[in-house]
């Protein structure tokens, strides 16, 4: 007999500006949250919140998340290569500004990331990011709520088909 698996929200937590928003939505949907970082996470007594500290190497947090996130899970990250890996694994992926990455959109996101990296390397772009606004938070909250509902439905359907 197979074990049922509920949705989990995985967060690439290093420099994530929407941790509080994630916790609000997770509580509303009764979903566990796993924050993954190289350090600097605040401990929580909430049993639905898990903090994972990974070694301080370039892709340790990304590798940890990509190895675990799959269908029915939600991943929050601004890291496009991590987003691509998680989309490939069937997870629902959302950027910090509420931009959802799907099988249909991730190719363009990877191409744009590579182009911007090339422009920074050649000095054509200095790589400045605009400030994160209250509107960005609002858009993120709405997008995360929508994605969590979809992920929960996917997990429930999978459980019924076991």
From TrEMBL:
| InterPro entries (UniProt xref) | UPF0178
- Of which family is this protein a member? Belongs to the UPF0178 family.
Protein name as it appears in the record: UPF0178 protein E0D97_15290
Q: Which Pfam families match?
A: DUF188 (PF02639)
